[in-house]
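Record type: monomer structure entry
Structure origin: computed from sequence
Chain ID: A
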Amino acid sequence: MTITFRMVEAFRAVMLTGGVTKAAEMLHVSQPSVTRLVHDLESVLGWKLFVPDGRRVKPTEDALALYQEVEYSFASLARLEAVGKRLNATKLRTLRVACLPALGLTLLPLAVRTLTLATKAHIEVQVVSSKAGLQLVKENRFDVALGLVSNAGRGLAQIAEVAGECRVILPPGHPDRRRRSMTLADLIDAPLVTYSENTETRTRLDAAFSREDLQPNYVAEASSSIFISSLVMQGDYVGVVDSFTALNHVRSGGHAVALKPSIDFSVGAFAVEGRARHPLVDALLDELQRANRDSYRMNLSSRATKLRAKQQPT
């Protein structure tokens, strides 16, 4: 026979209450069960733990020494339980999101703000490249990744999509600012800033120019759409970026028009295939979709207001 947790638990209950009957009530078991467990522990140890003392029992010197060790063990268990509860609470409260910069620096902050104010939840965001974010989720270090569909690979399931496309961005006061759209042919004489050659969007843009047998005038390129927007805001260039960055560009005082033909820049939301989804994921994605729709509507409304103001007689 070996010592079991139930034996030690019964011994501790008798030490705390001073009697077998009270110990049985404390453990919600029968009195004979406590007596048997204590006797089993004595058999394993080879010495007596209690002696009769009226209606109560009195611990022996050996029992007092053993009780100190038992209390240390139970204190450790209590600490482990407390740590476990904190970890569990953190796991339920903290949502870890990896996001590519085009969305992470534009619409995602709007969605995170709304969700945290509404739920008091804690959200950790890592703004990284699309491939790096997807890898963080594959390694179970993050709950959801917002990245390009083509980067997903195996082991991830796409659970949502945030629709986007490429736009032409213009500096403040640009002559083409009132146009609804611009074609690729409209851009060949413009000093153009866009994504670096190693990016998927640049590959799509180059292919579109090639299909129309056009040669663009690229004067600068960058992996960051925010950098492209900042450079265009200086007033000398036009750019091609995703629609999320384009909305921020307009908020900063620049202009954005549609690109024809359109070039897709939709972002997928990915989680580990077969893994239970974090309870806040769907709520965050809903807020992100709402922010995307609201920002687009606000942009259209702002453009219409400016157009009407221009048409008003002075």
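Annotation 1: Residues 300-311 have pLDDT under 50 and may be disordered.
Annotation 2: The longest helix spans residues 61-93.
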